[in-house]
């Protein structure tokens, strides 16, 4: 467990020799020991091809590589931080919500259309996430940021979860998501409830929601 | 969570936090406040600007620099007084025959038993002595022990340890690839090339974000050889005047 929460907005990470860590650029608050911060030209893993993929997918958030021997404290913009421990599952998260993650995790990008087809793409537009999202897979820890506190909602096959697309932060596990709409004549004349779009997540896993509808 | 807790003069905490964003002072005598940080009070408390009448003596005993005393107010009387600052996290600290240097904008209030001095480092103030003071930070404060290197924006202050020095880290700009990077700018910067380095025994106070609080002017230093000067950047030529004449006012004893 390399990450330890110091308070709701600051996380301490242990860096050991031979293990890399990625973090958002400029998110280091302090460090002890011998640690170096190198801007990652490719913005993460997968070499140049990975970089091109992320550039096209617009998931290329400026990352840096953290290496050395010591402890590093991370925090960014006063956002709340949650540490998610992955044990082989896949985490789906927007790249700009990633504060730091283990270098042992496999980083990838996913096309929204591959889950839910056209509605998946519409969903990407509605939530402002674009058509792609970042995936992290493997065994390791991820520190994710949110505006406002974190709420963790379990998803079970019998109980799908509906989430406001703006409050959605990330999800993990074997989860299908689709955008459900409740657009009626009220929305057409501008007297809607403001909750016309909802994200329906079903399957087995967890969804993380922030206590705010503000984007990062 | 049950609704808001309702306080009255008796149930308000004694020299303690009401919530993370507000601090209650049990006043019996004097406290010094930065202007505009009192949000409510019970009892009989009077607020005076420093620098006129009998309060002029405070400049000699507690402020030591007539130049920034205009930004401070004396609260005098008996009662409970609430302090807050733009919903930033507020904490109180006890000094026991110690010293603590803090970013000027973060200091809210202090007991008269402490004396406030300009730090040699521009933009910082040093408190010396025994007593309590209240400081704000953007996000909760984390205490760390040296040796540590801190991003400049995350630093709130430090106690007992020697003043920090600058540390520059451009390790990744070495070698052939580093040369190309430095020359073309390709790959960008990590944003972590410059830190404050702390060594020795003491405590370093960090805030949880890299968003700074607005600085208040700490006053000019005498134009002398050997005296480090604040850059014009953090020393506005006009003193801050919230609705009044600031320094001029003090000078004329208004």
How would you characterize this protein structure?
The complex is a heterodimer of chains A (216) and B (254). Chain A has a single domain (3-210), classed as Double-stranded beta-helix. Helices cover 12% and strands 54% of the residues of chain A. Chain A has helices spanning 47-57, 117-127, 185-188, and strands spanning 3-7, 10-15, 21-24, 28-39, 63-74, 80-93, 98-102, 106-111, 132-146, 150-155, 161-163, 168-181, 197-210. With 216 residues, chain A is mainly beta. Chain B has 254 residues and is mainly beta. Chain B has two domains: 1-137, Double-stranded beta-helix (4-Layer Sandwich); 138-212, no CATH class. Chain B has helices at residues 57-63, 175-184, 246-251; strands spanning 16-19, 22-34, 38-49, 72-83, 89-103, 107-110, 114-118, 124-137, 141-144, 148-150, 155-159, 165-168, 194-198, 203-207. In chain B, the strands form two sheets. In chain B, strands 1, 2, 3, 4, 5, 6, 7, 8, 9, 11 and 14 form an eleven-stranded antiparallel beta sheet that branches. In chain B, strands 10-13-12 form a three-stranded antiparallel beta sheet, with no helix packed on it. The radius of gyration of chain B is 21 Å and the shape is globular. Classes of the chains: A mainly beta (216), B mainly beta (254). At the A-B interface, strand 4 of A face strand 10 of B. Strand 4 of chain A pairs antiparallel with strand 10 of chain B, so a sheet runs across the interface.
Secondary structure elements and their pairing?
The complex is a heterodimer of chains A (216) and B (254).
Chain A: E1 3-7, E2 10-15, E3 21-24, E4 28-39, H1 47-57, E5 63-74, E6 80-93, E7 98-102, E8 106-111, H2 117-127, E9 132-146, E10 150-155, E11 161-163, E12 168-181, H3 185-188, E13 197-210
Antiparallel strand pairs in A: 1-2, 2-5, 3-5, 3-7, 4-5, 6-9, 6-12, 7-9, 8-9, 10-13, 11-13, 12-13
Chain B: E1 16-19, E2 22-34, E3 38-49, H1 57-63, E4 72-83, E5 89-103, E6 107-110, E7 114-118, E8 124-137, E9 141-144, E10 148-150, E11 155-159, E12 165-168, H2 175-184, E13 194-198, E14 203-207, H3 246-251
Antiparallel strand pairs in B: 1-2, 2-4, 2-6, 3-4, 5-8, 5-11, 6-8, 7-8, 9-14, 10-13, 11-14, 12-13
